[in-house]
Amino acid sequence: MRKYELVFIIKPMEEEATQAVIAKFETMVANNGGTMEKIDRWGKRRLAYLVKDFTEGFYCIFHFTGTPATVAELDRVMKITDDILRHMIVKEDE
Questions:
Q1: DSSP character string of 26-94
Q2: Which residues constitute the domain of residue 13?
Q3: Which of the 8 DSSP states describes residue 20?
Q4: pLDDT of residue 94
């Protein structure tokens, strides 16, 4: 099990919809054999440039442990989810 950091930006939506997207990926980590260490919700921030015609986005950061299969599944689902503007998964240093 390795430690990872997932940073993603959700398109501006209502609060309930945003929390539903965060909960979806939180349960996805658990269902694929990972464990959540910490969740940072930065909130709505202005983007440096237009991303899919949006000027703002809701930033969220997951710190979790998991396997490479967990990361691959998260990456696959984030790419096909329309509510996610950008995401990045990095392995944390030990």
A1: HHHHHHTT-EEEEEEEEEEEEEEEEETTEEEEEEEEEEEEE-HHHHHHHHHHHHH-TTEEEEEEEEPP-
A2: 2-91
A3: H
A4: 66
- Give the CB-side neighbour count of residue 43, counting CA atoms within 13 A: 0
Provide the CATH number for the domain around residue 50. Answer: 3.30.70.60
Q: Measured over all CA atoms, what is the biggest interatomic distance in the chain, rounded to whole angstroms?
A: 38
pLDDT by residue, tens only, the chain of 94 residues: 899 999 999 999 999 999 999 999 999 999 988 899 999 999 899 999 998 899 999 999 999 999 999 999 999 999 999 999 999 999 987 6
Beta bridge partners of 66: 2
